[in-house]
């Protein structure tokens, strides 16, 4: 159990929900922000904010002062070694507990940076909880929203493979649980949603909820990469997405666990609930408000 909790990645897909869930639990939250000035009121209204950057160790001391627990995110743009050095710094100053946002399969997959960071955390004296999350439903709001809004299609090169999509709101709430309740120290949880779906089934849910036909054309990896290039996405990001969707295509992203249910004390959100909750954004009638 922790008192002051430092939340990294607090403006991100999961971090914003960690802040909200910790606040709802009356935890003492400190949000670590690269630029504390222009953050949304959603973040600024809660707790203390501190300037923090993984690539600027001179910002770490103030951020870590009197901190008991950390919600740790490795931003995709930050090198794993910088996150590792930050973990060591947290250990040195006496932080007691880190909840780390990892990815499903990280224990065995030596290719993902999360594998290395998990090991680095476990090599310290810190108490830890590893939150190995499945593919976020919110990726559909971010990377794939233009295809849905402008072309009425789900343009994902995942073939007929199934994915155990998890809602980032549930991941955020699970993080708040492990940081504020006892019994989660030195444990790892595989956080998935309640069902594994292929993208044809996801498209059918979109069609039903939005009241218009959304198709899943099962694009090849090459067709997907070409469209992403035309949209101006970076080559590295496209390669990462292709790797993730190849995992799904091979049927390796389909495992459903009951860890989310056990932590949340309720069923995690289904894909249908996610699409209903963000329907205006998928209809294009709402300004993108975040996740
Ligand atoms: N997407 C998935 O399906 C999925 C599934 C499982 C695990 N994951 C893992 O989740 C992590 C990403 O979490 P997310 O999606 O919640 O984050 P996100 O939406 O990608 O946002 C990244 C966050 O990191 C912050 N950030 C960027 N550079 C920083 C720096 N140099 N120093 C400090 N903060 C910095 C950003 O702040 P600014 O507002 O300042 O940019 C933002 O708050 C990754 O490690 C990913 O592998 C993702």
TrEMBL record:
The NmrA-like domain, residue ranges: 1-217
InterPro entries per the UniProt record, alphabetical: Ergot_Alk_Oxidoreductase, NAD(P)-bd_dom_sf, NmrA-like
Secretion signal, residue range per the UniProt entry: none
Protein's recorded name: Uncharacterized conserved protein YbjT, contains NAD(P)-binding and DUF2867 domains
Source organism phylogeny: Archaea, Methanobacteriati, Methanobacteriota, Stenosarchaea group, Halobacteria
């Amino acid at each position: 159990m922790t008192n002051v909790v430092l939340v990294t990645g607090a403006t991100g897909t999961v971090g914003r929900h960690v802040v909200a869930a910790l606040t709802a639990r009356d935890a003492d939250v400190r949000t670590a922000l690269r630029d504390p000035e222009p953050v949304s009121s959603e973040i600024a209204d809660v707790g203390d904010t501190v300037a923090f950057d993984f690539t600027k160790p001179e910002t770490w001391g103030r951020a870590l002062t009197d901190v008991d627990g950390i919600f740790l995110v490795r931003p995709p743009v930050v090198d794993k070694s910088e996150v590792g050095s930050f973990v060591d710094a947290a250990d040195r100053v006496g932080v007691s507990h880190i909840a780390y946002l990892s990815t499903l399969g990280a224990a065995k997959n030596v290719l993902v940076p999360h594998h290395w960071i998990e090991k680095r955390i476990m090599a310290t004296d810190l108490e830890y909880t590893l939150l190995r999350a499945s593919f976020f439903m919110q990726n559909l709001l971010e990377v794939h929203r233009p295809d849905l809004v402008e072309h009425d299609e789900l343009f994902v090169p995942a073939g007929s493979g199934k994915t155990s999509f998890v809602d980032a709101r549930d991941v955020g709430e699970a993080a708040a649980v492990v940081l504020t309740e006892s019994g989660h120290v030195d444990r790892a949880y595989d956080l998935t949603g309640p069902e594994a779906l292929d993208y044809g089934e996801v498209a059918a849910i979109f069609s039903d909820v939005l009241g218009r036909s959304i198709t899943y054309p099962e694009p090849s990896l090459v067709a997907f990469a070409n469209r992403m290039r035309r949209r101006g996405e970076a080559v590295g990001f496209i390669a990462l997405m292709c790797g993730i969707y190849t995992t799904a295509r091979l049927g390796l992203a389909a495992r459903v666990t009951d860890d989310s249910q056990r932590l949340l004390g309720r069923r995690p959100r289904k894909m249908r609930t996610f699409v209903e909750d963000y329907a205006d954004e998928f209809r294009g009638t709402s300004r993108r408000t975040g996740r």
